[in-house]
Amino acid sequence: MTDFEALLLPDSGGEAGTLQLLDRETLERLRPGLSATARAALEAAGFTGEPDSIAWMGERDWAVGVRDPARPGRWCLAAAAGKLPPGRYRLQSVLGFAGLGNAAHGWLMAQHRFTRYRKAEPEGARVLLTEAIAAIAPAVAMAQASALVRDLTDTPANDMGPAEVEAAARSVATRHGAAMEAVKGEALLDANFPAIHAVGRASPRAPRLVRLDWGDPRHPQLTLVGKGICFDSGGLNIKPGSGMALMKKDMGGAAHALALAGLVMGASLPVRLTLLLAVADNAISGDAMRPGDILATRKGLSVEIGNTDAEGRLVLADALALAAEDRPALLMDFATLTGAARVALGPELPALFSNNAALAADLIAAGSTAEDPLWQLPLWQNYRSLFKSAIADLNNNSDSGFAGAIVAALFLERFVAADLPWAHIDLYAWNGTVKPGRPKGGAEMTLAACFTLLKQRFQ
After folding, report:
1. How confident is the model at residue 123 (pLDDT cuts 50, 70, 90)?
2. Cys-Cys with 227: which of 101, 183, 335, 390 at CB 3.0–4.6 Å?
3. Considering 113, 239, 384, 435, which one is annotated as catalytic?
């Protein structure tokens, strides 16, 4: 993994390039006081303060275009970190803790590379020096967690199956001294996880429920749940080739839950943490679940299979039922669950569902603070009728085609006690377009928002 700690260092003096954050208004205000060399260099470069632009100003000075120099955005330094010559740099104006923490994220992530299958060309490091020393460790931790999400999600399914997801969780558990166990294969039936077993039984790679526990039992219970479908063929309701193209990312929810758990443990938040990852391949074989099958679930509700491609809600049903048994103070799940959420909100804006108005409001506010937005959609109870079954308690699919993200969230709600504060995040976990600091590929979404909320609630 990228050595983020070497890219953000305390400023102890010495030679370094200077970065001056400028927008159009600030540039015009400061222009008369600039040296003739700086003015000429900026004019030659056509620099106007446009966000994501940079220009040499002479000597070791550089202008960096941003939307608002007083409130630097989370990605405001990402373009600079990708374009500047290798070396050491300091910001001309010292940002406070929060400002640097946000701005440093783009600086760090712009220098992350996924190199498992192809060596990156040597680039040299761009090191940012800062006097806001207290902001360094949190910024590095967030970059490491974000890189974990990206790397796990970018890894193709042949190298990121259920065993590899378990190994990634075990690595995080070992690093933080957490206890971990996994229930696998046929043992899922004995342990009463029949839905996870049903989804994954067609694959030669055994499905599993991965559990991590950490923290003082006297502290409030925080439970994080992640959907870990390592590859989603659609099952017997097979996807077309175009629909399968990105399905290595269908374990993106598990990657997010694992990365968030690592942040919680790394910050020593006073919680009793449980992480549950429901991990499986949705494959095709003679043993695959069929449309029309009736499945049992851990909670005791029977589910008719209307569509084998609606498998994520099945594995989450067992995991959420287990989570609810512990009566957590807060329960959060993460899943690349529905295309309907992407139709409604697009690829950049995750959908938030919650049975607790205060929790939803706090999460949205945390997303605003962290510049990591979510958008709440309703748990519209009238739509429960859309997944009724004539012969089982529930159907995992709606024939109507309407409100797909809401229907999926309502299905999950049936496995969570009404009085447990619960948030369900339906995210894409992928960048389809290239932006500074955000290459095409696996993407961290809501990680900063959720960690901000947890610090506010428990720190």
Report:
1. confident
2. 335
3. 239
| Residue 227 known to be catalytic | no
Residue 94 has pLDDT above 70, yes or no: no
Q: Is 214 helix (H, G, I), strand (E, B) or coil?
A: strand
Distance of CA 394 to the CA centre of its chain: 29
Pairing of strands 441-442, 394-395: unpaired
Active-site residue flag, 239? yes
d(CA 226, CA 277): 5
Label residue 441 by pLDDT band (50, 70, 90).
Answer: very high
pLDDT confidence band for 95 (50 / 70 / 90):
low
Enumerate the β-bridge partners of residue 441: 431
Taking the model in full, what pTM does it have?
0.97
- Which residue bears the tokens 């373009």? 79
In the prediction, which pLDDT does 15 show? 95
Domains and CATH numbers, the chain: 4-131 (3.40.220.10), 155-458 (3.40.630.10)
**Sign of the Cα pseudo-torsion (197, 198, 203, 209, in order):** negative
Rounded CA Rg of the chain: 24
